[in-house]
Amino acid sequence: MQYIYIFLTFLLSSYALFQPGIYQNETFDILNLSIAAICSVALFSQPRRSYSLYKIFHLFFLFFFCIAPSIQYKNGVQLLMTVFSESDYILTSTYVLCSLLLFNFVYILQYKSTSIKHNQIDGNETTRHTIDSGTELKLILLSFSIFLLVFYRNNFSILSMFFRGGEYVERISLGRSLGLVITQFLRPMVMVLFLSTSVLRLRRKSTKWILFILFVLTDFPTSMARFSAAAMYIPVLLWYVPFLREKNKFIITMIVGLLLVFPFLNNFRYFYSSNTLHIGLNYSQFSQLHFDSYSEFMRVLQDDIVTNGRQLLGVIFFWIPRSIWPNKPIGSGAYVAHEQELYFENISMPFIGEGYINFGMVGVILFVVLLAYFSEKLDRWYWTKIVHRKKDIDCIGYFLIIALFLFIMRGDLLSSFAFTSGILCSFFFVKKYVDRKSTRLNSSH
Question: Which of 209, 314, 219, 224 is CA-nearest to residue 265?
Answer without folding.
Answer: 224
